[in-house]
Structures are given as C-alpha cells and as structure tokens.
C-alpha cells in the first residue's frame, strides 16, 4: 500500500518512483499542459526520423538550430522510435527521468548519512517538488539536467564523505554525471561541476587531492561524451554552429543591468523557498540551533549544498529572463540538506504542524475531487475520468483515516497528496485540452488522403502538435513570419489559424475545419456551461480553429 498501517515512517524508493509515474503520468504524458520550448525538440526528432540524420537539429521550418546539445533531442527521438510518434513517446523518458531523480535523491542521502529516515524524507521532499513534477511533463532539457546533475552529486557526496579513501565509483559517477549534463544543457553543468570540484579540493575538513581526482579512464570517457556532439557539429557544419550555441548560452541569457539582476535574484530566492513548501516552513522552529549542530556534524556537505544553492541563485539572477525551472539542477542536494536539518530538529515529532500542512493539501484534493465528480459524472465524462474522480474520493478517505490513526505517516500523506493533485487535475483539464489540434487535424488529413507537403501558418505550438500527429510520412512546413502570403501560393494544401483566414482569397480554395479547441479566455464560462444542451453552440462560438485549405 502507498500508505501502510505501520507506525514507523519507512520509505521504499522503488515504490515511491512507481507511484510518481502512475500518479502524474495521466497529467504529463498527454498535452494537458504544453510548454512553448517543447516544439524545438519534438520537431527536430520528427526530422531525424525523416532524414536519418541523428546529429543535426532542425526547426519545423527546416532551418538549422544549434542552441542546445543533443541529449534532449535524442530522448524525444528514442521515445518516438520505441512508442510511436505521439505525445506519450515525446514525454515518457522525461517522466522516467523525474522518477529517477527521486531515486537518486534517496541514494545520495543514504550514501552521505547512512540514515534511512533522512533518506526517506529527502525522497518525499523531492517527489512532491512541483517544479520537478511540471518538468517531468515537458520534453525540454531541465528534468534531464537535474537527473544527470544528481548523478554527479552522488559522486561528489561520496568523495566529500570519504576523502582520499573514496571508492573510484564515486569519481566515475561525478565525471559521467557532469559529462551527460553538459550534453543536456552545456555551460550551466560545467559551472556547477567546477564549483563542486573546488569544494572537494579546498574544503579544510576532508579534502580530496588533485591526484585522486585525476582518474584518467573516467576523465577520458567523460570528456569524449561531453564533447562528442560539439566535435561532430564542427566537422559537419563548421564553426558557425558555435555562434548560435554561445549566443544562447551566454549572449541572450546573461543580463547586464543591475536592477534586472537584483530583481531576478530576489525572484529566484523566493521561488527556491516556495518550491520546498511546506518542508521549509516545518524546519523553522529551532532552526538556528540545528544549523549549528549540522554544521559541526558534516561541514563539508553543508558547504557543498550552500555553494551549489548560491551558484544557482547567481546564475538565475544573471539571466535576461528568469524561469523557475532554472533552479531545478540543485533541488535534490537542497532536498537532502533540508531533510537532514529537519530530522535533526525533530520535524517528524511536530505532529500539529504536519497536521496543518496535511489538512491544507487535503482540502485541495477535496475541491479537485468535487470538480472532477461534477464534470465527469454526466454525459461528458468517460469511464477512466470517472475512475480518477472515484480514486480521489478513496484517497481522501484513506489519507484522513491514516493521518488520524498513525500521525507518523503525515509526511508521506503530504507528498502523496501533492501527487494526487496532478492526478485529479488531468481528469478536469482533459475536457479543455484534448483532443488537441494535432489529433484532430491528422484525422482530417488522413481521411482526405493527402500526401503532398502541407504549409502551416499560425501558432507554432499547434503546428508542432500537428507535425507530430502526422508522423514522419508527412511534411508540414512552417511558413516564415513575414511575407508568408508570397510563399503560401506555392503549396496545394495549407493549414491556417483562424485569425489569418481573411488574408486569403477563398474563391480559389476549398476550406474545411481541421481542429477546434477551447479559447483560453472562455475557459471559465465554457466549464460552467459544460452540461448545458447549448454547450456545442457555445463552444463553436468560443473556440480557436485551424482550417485546411485545398486549392481548387
């Protein structure tokens, strides 16, 4: 059972990882939410399937794009090859990376402290991290970066613990993790790795010598992995690719204005605290004394966690535009740090505080379950959606019963409740986001037996969904933003966003509706009217449409 009746808090990381996949899988493995940058990796993976070039990355327009290393593209490509060109395939390895991060967080803590309570609480804190959950449903680099950086952190903490006597496996984990992270995101991984190595070399408590770190087999293999794609691109495309990469890594993202740096830094600090709620609030009592105690107990790890935490805040502050996902690479290390302080300060014995946090999150489950029941127990819902709502009711009853009977389980209840929030959300957002534009448009195109290249003009997110749903057997080409009217006449078939339809001479085209999705501005009104007989008319008047145009 997810919440056993035992009176002691015990965490099995494998069960936690499986629960993570099962509970957020319905939300993240479909387009209930869609992040803008996903299109770059998904479109490039479709292009790889079409042309057999697994190293060069392209946009949906056919232009080259070198802003990120190759590993994220390969994760999407592998999903397409194994599970088909669909939303499940595009995101499955990112979900598994999120679950793997939870497992590595447990391992990191267990290596460092050999205390299953600290390890268990570390995993519970990480499994309920909202930024990790959201990133697990985005086919972009961030969740792969945190997975690989956590692998490197396992190596770092092993070396911090054992110093010169550390087993070589920790050196391998550190270097391989950093190499893979570099192939995911580039310079941020290198910066964190450099700072971590400085802590190993110069901390005064348990130093690691340069000779120990100079492990030639691990260094050579890691360098080969880290630089493989960069060397390949230089050989294939010449040095011009590097300009695009460095512009994204340094030029565009690094801010130079003092007020912007200050604003981003404060925002980063605030979000870093928020992403660990309620745990950060629960350790506040006796925090000062506990910090002194933990510092004396393991100063080298304390310093390592602080250095990485400050580094990620600094990197976030220096970006021209800050996103909460930029904080994710160091979240597992900070989760272990918070769990360590929490256990030492007696957080598991603060039953009243844990009860308040549980009640708050269970109230959210109550609201979401009620909304899900209201929407899905009519003609609108299907069996699976009703099952999700029913499981929400069962979980609510079971969590309340367990929390009252065995309050030692409250930390586990808090974490599973946060996972259940996303599980229930998918039964509500299903009606808003699905079937998405790609599914609808692909059905029409296949029914029309169209095999020629198709031009697309409109929101690139919708175009990417259509491109994915059509698969590698079709060519959907994004038109340029400017002077698209001059280019569009070359194509027999066009998919066009509704707001541009009036720009076309419709006397020479046959027009059919390719997709119809809820207009975001009308979502509250549409939800309130979903069971009304006139809902279809209301949806028709308040939907975002794409049209298929065929030359007569």
Automatic annotation (TrEMBL):
The keyword Transmembrane applies. It is a multi-pass membrane protein. Residues 18-240 form the ArnT-like N-terminal domain. InterPro entries: ArnT-like_N, LipidA_mod_glycosyltrf_83. It is found in: Cell membrane. Keywords: Cell membrane, Glycosyltransferase, Membrane, Transferase, Transmembrane, Transmembrane helix. It comes from the Bacteria. The chain crosses the membrane at residues 12-33, 70-85, 92-112, 118-136, 143-160, 172-201, 213-234, 254-281, 301-320, 326-343, 355-377, 383-401, 413-432. Pfam families: PMT (PF02366). This is Phospholipid carrier-dependent glycosyltransferase. It comes from Algoriphagus marincola.
């Amino acid at each position: 059972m997810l919440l056993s009746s035992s009176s002691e808090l015990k965490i099995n990381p494998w069960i936690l990882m499986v629960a993570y996949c099962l509970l957020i899988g319905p939300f993240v493995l479909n387009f209930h939410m869609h992040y803008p940058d996903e299109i770059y990796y998904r479109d490039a993976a479709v292009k790889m399937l079409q042309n057999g070039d697994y190293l060069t990355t392209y946009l949906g327009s056919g232009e080259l794009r070198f802003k990120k290393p190759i590993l994220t593209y390969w994760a999407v490509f592998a999903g397409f090859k194994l599970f088909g060109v669909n939303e499940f395939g595009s995101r499955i390895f990112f979900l598994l990376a999120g679950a793997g991060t939870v497992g590595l967080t447990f391992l990191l803590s267990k290596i460092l402290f050999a205390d299953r309570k600290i390890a268990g609480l570390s995993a519970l804190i990480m499994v309920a991290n909202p930024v990790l959950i959201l990133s697990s449903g985005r086919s972009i680099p961030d969740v792969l970066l945190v997975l690989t950086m956590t692998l490197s952190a396992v190596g770092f903490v092993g070396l911090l613990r054992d110093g010169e006597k550390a087993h070589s496996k920790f050196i391998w984990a550190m270097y391989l993790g950093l190499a893979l992270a570099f192939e995911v995101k580039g310079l941020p991984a290198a910066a964190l790795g450099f700072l971590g190595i400085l802590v190993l070399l110069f901390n005064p408590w348990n130093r690691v010598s340069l000779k120990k770190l100079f492990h030639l087999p691990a260094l050579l293999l890691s360098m080969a992995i880290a630089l493989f794609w960069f060397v390949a691109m230089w050989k294939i495309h010449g040095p011009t690719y590097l300009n695009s990469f460095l512009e994204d890594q340094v030029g565009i993202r690094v801010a130079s204005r003092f007020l912007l740096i200050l604003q981003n830094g404060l925002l980063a600090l605030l979000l870093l605290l928020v992403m660990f709620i309620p745990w950060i609030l629960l350790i506040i009592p006796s925090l000062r004394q506990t910090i002194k105690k933990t510092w004396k107990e393991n100063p080298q790890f304390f310093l390592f966690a602080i250095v990485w935490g400050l580094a990620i805040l600094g990197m976030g502050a220096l970006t021209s535009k800050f996103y909460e996902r930029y904080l994710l690479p160091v979240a597992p290390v900070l989760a272990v740090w918070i769990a360590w302080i929490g256990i030492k300060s007696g957080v598991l014995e603060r039953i009243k505080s844990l009860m308040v946090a549980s009640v708050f999150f269970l109230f959210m489950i109550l609201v979401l379950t009620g909304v899900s029941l209201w929407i899905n127990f009519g003609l609108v819902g299907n069996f699976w959606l009703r099952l999700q709502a029913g499981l929400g009711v069962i979980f609510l009853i079971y969590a309340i019963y367990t929390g009252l009977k065995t309050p030692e389980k409250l930390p586990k209840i808090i974490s599973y409740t946060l996972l259940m929030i996303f599980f229930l959300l998918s039964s509500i957002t299903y009606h808003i986001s699905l079937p998405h534009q790609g599914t609808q448009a692909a059905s029409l195109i296949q029914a029309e037996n169209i095999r020629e290249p198709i031009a697309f003009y409109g929101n690139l997110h919708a175009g990417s969904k259509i491109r994915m749903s059509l698969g590698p057997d079709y060519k959907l080409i994004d038109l340029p933003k400017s002077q698209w009217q001059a280019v569009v006449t070359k194509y027999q078939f066009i998919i066009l966003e509704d707001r541009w339809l009036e720009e076309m001479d419709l006397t020479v085209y046959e027009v059919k509706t390719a997709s119809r999705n809820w207009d975001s501005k009308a979502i509250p009104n549409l939800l309130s009217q979903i069971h009304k007989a006139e809902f279809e008319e209301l949806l028709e008047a308040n939907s975002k449409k794409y049209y298929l145009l065929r030359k007569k």
